[in-house]
Amino acid sequence: MKKGMDLLSIHALSADDVDEILTFAADLKAKQKAGITHPILAGKTLGMIFEKASTRTRVSFEVGMYQLGGQALFLSSRDLQLGRGEPIKDTARVLSRYLDGIMIRTYGHECIEELARYADIPVINALSDLLHPCQALTDLFTIREYKGKNLAGLKMAYVGDGNNMTHSLMYAAAKVGMNFAVATPEGYEPNAEVVANAKADAAATGATVTITHNPMEAVAGAAVIVTDTWASMGQEAEHDARTAVFRPYQVNWELVAESGDPRCIVMHCLPAYRGEEITEDVFEEFANVIFDEAENRLHVQKAIMALVMGG
Ligand code: CP
Ligand code: NVA
């Protein structure tokens, strides 16, 4: 990845970019575990704009900047003039005069694209309604830790809502040659444009993207099963209606057994809602993987920031 690049979508990265991020993240993780300091971003500042809640993203970006020798500013949209109607394009141009990078979590993906268009510093997508690239790159990193470096030919199954996680995982899998199968209820399928893009990326790496309404079919032969909340941030009012529709898509032991692979792992980006998208017993069985996945946000985002803000 070149210095100054934005990270808005995995689709815009090359397979080499993805490999570079994951390899550098492993190096940074090893350094941090060994207590070797790595002040790659000394003197640099990241602005972190949040229009939605966060535990992992906020803490991992802030701690990550600190470990890289720089600092991070938490900028809630409730406090910024952005929340009172100051245009994104003005916010972008102002912040570019103070900061070395911007991380943003918001609703509409087009807001992140506009911010990136007007900012002349790197912009990192920390979740939009459409995409969550930092999480999906972290998921690839975590899968590599459990399954080895070469992921080509392995199957990833996603069961649940066709949401931001589905989209970014689909892009991530396609870039590394993983076969991706998604099972959602009717009416909750992934975005058609994202599916078309992911299929084009998958064709380049010899992988497949399969969309179904049948969760058993999706998980058959899967090395990795992933799920996410049935009601994402901003969909709280739909929670009860969604719970009724999504019930057959719960990741429980019966579904995990359908993978047929005794080494199959289950992943979840968190926060997890037990008794909804995943059962308590499946969650706890795979807690080591899931909390490694949460930890790895730190290492992967440090690699991204060091590459685009440091160079
Ligand atoms: N997985 C994830 O992005 O978590 P937060 O919403 O807590 O940041
Ligand atoms: N799909 C979830 C992911 C949370 C990290 C949401 O957007 O709320």
Strand percentage lies at 5-15%
Number of helices: 12
Low-confidence stretches: none
**What portion of residues is helical?**
40-55%
Kindly report how far apart the N and C termini lie: 8 Å
Major sheet, described briefly?
5 strands, parallel
Radius of gyration: 19 Å
SSE topology string: HEHEHEHEHEHEHEHEHHEHH
Secondary structure tally: strands: 9
Structural class label: alpha/beta
Bound molecules: phosphoric acid mono(formamide)ester, norvaline
Categorize the overall geometry.
globular
Strand order of the largest sheet: 7-6-5-8-9
Query: Taking all residues together, what is the mean pLDDT?
Result: 98
Keywords: Cytoplasm, Transferase
Catalytic activity: carbamoyl phosphate + L-ornithine = L-citrulline + phosphate + H(+)
Family: Belongs to the aspartate/ornithine carbamoyltransferase superfamily. OTCase family.
Protein name: Ornithine carbamoyltransferase
What does this structure look like?
The chain is globular and about 55 Å long. The chain has 311 residues and is an alpha/beta fold. The mean pLDDT is 98. Helix 1 (15-34) crosses helix 5, helix 2 packs across helix 12 (287-310) and helix 5 packs across helix 6. The protein contains twelve helices and nine strands. It has helices at residues 15-34, 56-67, 88-98, 109-118, 133-147, 164-176, 192-205, 215-219, 239-246, 253-257, 280-285, 287-310, and strands spanning 45-50, 71-76, 101-105, 123-125, 155-159, 179-183, 209-212, 224-227, 265-268. 50% of the residues are buried. The strands form two sheets. Strands 7-6-5-8-9 form a five-stranded parallel β-sheet. The longest helix is centred in the C-terminal third of the chain and has 24 residues, at 287-310. Bound molecules: phosphoric acid mono(formamide)ester and norvaline (NVA). The site of norvaline (NVA) has 9 residues, from helix 6. Norvaline (NVA) binds at residues 127, 163-165, 228-229, 232-233, 269.
